[in-house]
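hi! just following up on the protien thing from before. the input was this:
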Amino acid sequence: MASFSSTTVFLLLISLNVSAFFIAVSAGTFYEDIDIKWGDDRAKILENGQLLTLSLDRACGAGFQSKNEFLFGRIEMQLKLVPGNSAGTVTAFYLSSQGPTHDEIDFEFLGNLSGDPYTLHTNIYTQGKGEREQQFHLWFDPTADFHTYSFTWNPKHIIFSVDETPIREFKNLESIGVPYPKNQAMSLYSSLWDAEDWATRGGLIKTDWSQAPFTASYRNFNTNACIWSAGKSSCSLASSALMAADNSWLAPELDARGVEKLMWVRRNYMIYNYCTDTSRFPGGFPAECEATGDS
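and the predicted 3d structure came back as:
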């Protein structure tokens, strides 16, 4: 991230009408930070709250939700994905608000046959509208060990990162009429579920239930963010903690090294970009594609 002064941080937030910023840092246990929402015993918290697993069988998958809602911050988790033949399965890891005009920031990991790479599917919804898909392969085996997946979300941009490497940036382009998620607090969700009708090669490869149960593992849920509760932020611009905390996630743009890493991923590992899909947008690409030179 780019370096910047405390004054720059303050002005950035004021200019975008962001009230009350005190950065809440959390690295507790899953017992403290997460609610299991569905799946019964297919979702398990283990190792004194340091490990969480979700499993999928023919009957059902499983999912969890953060206890807190966030309005800007850096939210990250380490995941180890379903190993072996994971075709037809989807491990979703995302931020979302509620309602028909919800905002959402998505990682979805689309399973594949043994030996074939996962597809990392990303999308952004603003005011209930998505269709901003970008897809990637990864430069490592995401089933062999834990890797860190993070969202950096501030009033200027959203960055998707994998092991500290930015893979996607979505900028605030409200100045040209592109909606940007900045007014709705979002919770973190994750789920493991069956999507054999579309997840692997457009649904051509189905789930092999003889391989069930399928299991994804999670650890090290960390947030450096503003918590939203009862219509108010936990944060305060006046707090000295803002300036004392690690506020690198507030940087308004990627630094030169971050841009270099982003372009490396795009050149070598991007496999789909909505901004270049002429069959979907024969009448012209979305405004954000034209403005950023992505089309």
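DSSP finds five helices and 16 strands in the chain.
Confidence is low (pLDDT under 50) at residues 1-22, 237-244.
cheers
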